[in-house]
Amino acid sequence: MSLTVGFLGYRFMGKAHANALARLPMFFPDAPDVERDVLIGRDEEALSTAIDQLGFDRYATDWRDTVDDVDVFYNLGPNNLHPDPSIAALNAGTHVFCEKPLAHDLDAAKRMASAARESDMSTATAFNYRFVPAIQYARELVESGAIGEVYHVRARYLQDWLVDPQAPWSWRNSADIAGSGALGDLGAHSIDLAQFLLGSRVERVSGHLRTFVNDRPVPGADDSDALSAAGSDSRETRPVTVDDAYSAQAAFANGAMGVFEASRFATGHKNGNTIELNGSEGAIRFDLERLNELEVLRGDGRGFETIHVTDDADPYVDRWWPAGHNIGWEHALVHENYEFLSAIGNGEPYEPDFETGLAVQRVLDAIERSDERGEWVDVRT
Questions:
Q1: What residue ranges in the chain does DSSP mark as E strands?
Q2: Taking 50 as the threshold, does the pLDDT of residue 223 lie above it?
Q3: Which of 26, 51, 248, 319 is buried most, with the most CB atoms less than 10 Å from its CB?
Q4: How far apart are CA 13 and CA 19, in angstroms?
């Protein structure tokens, strides 16, 4: 099978997924053939350069002109741009891959999931960390009962790129565009990983959100050197209308307790995505900054052992390099694209789909409501 694809977006995630598609023929030759057809954005000058860099045939400046031209539509735009193009693509009979969180708010996520249910097309929500070999191995351990009944889940995602109050404003600081800040951008990953590894959904939450810097300078809005020479420190700013950090307690349907945390103000952390599960017979710990490793405590052990998840028998590893040769962050996206496109080619269901994205969005929404009310909130109400 050969599939034509269109990308809405060509910056960070556009490059990441274009790279993933380029790797498939060499390392996953059983994947469907993919033609990178059209790249979609607003800046024609930037697009004309990006199509060559990312390996696309052409570009377009309006997604409406393209969603029915391709077999698979990749929605890699800002969060508030997820609903309408994705729904239009599904209605046109096009498969849809959408970045996380599924949408900028719960109502939009519900509309997207409803459109997916009414369509025969495949959908994907981009929870790429599921496809790290160490996470896949961790899931196998939990499912096999190796750590017994899980009592505790604690997950945190820490970054420090906004610690400087002069760091420029971006769409990720806007509630209208992003929906939320660290909660949706980082917390969505933690919540999905917890529900994936545990095999159980969050039912109740108690959340707390904070914004530490209320305004940020607009990029390119002034000449800082000229202002300094003139004795002025004034500059154009925009308000920050999302959280900079959040924390939450959670109760899972199977009785496990959960603790979540994410921050863009966690000084010293560049991309610290960690998760730990404690069970009656053992425990597991994963840290994205040590992506090829999984810490495992077994029932008869006196401490955690570090397992290097790079053996041929480990998930996906036989597709890459000899045992012991590390892979990196981008490889999880190759695995993710392989699974999604193969599911389309084989006519099989894919997970995580839009229903999975909606399940995470419900938790995000409940955490925000809990913070507003100052009380525990049921996820489904």
A1: 2-8, 33-40, 58-60, 72-75, 95-98, 123-125, 150-158, 202-210, 215-217, 237-239, 245-252, 257-263, 272-279, 283-287, 293-297, 305-308, 377-378
A2: no
A3: 248
A4: 10
**238-259 pLDDT per residue, tens:** 999 999 999 999 999 999 999 9
> How far apart (Å, rounded) are the C-alpha atoms in residues 76 and 37?
15
DSSP string, 163-210: -STTSPP-GGG-HHHHSSSHIIIIIHHHHHHHHHHHT--EEEEEEEEE
DSSP state of 347: T
Under a CB-based contact definition with an 8 Å cutoff, are residues 100 and 336 in contact? no
Q: Which residues of 107-131 are buried (b: 16+ CB within 10 A; e: fewer)?
A: ebbbbbbebbeebebbbbbbbbbbb
Give the closest residue to 351 by CA, choosing from 185, 71, 123: 123
Q: What is the pLDDT of residues 162-189, one digit of tens each?
A: 999 999 999 999 999 999 999 999 999 9
Rounded Cα distance, 226 and 245, in Å = 34
**C-alpha torsion 67→70→73→74, nearest 10:** -120
Cα–Cα distance between 235 and 56 in angstroms, integer? 39
- At 56 the three-state DSSP class reads coil
Can you tell me the distance from the alpha carbon of 342 to that of 339, in angstroms, rounded to the nearest whole number?
Answer: 5
**33: three-class secondary structure by DSSP:** strand
Predicted model pTM: 0.94
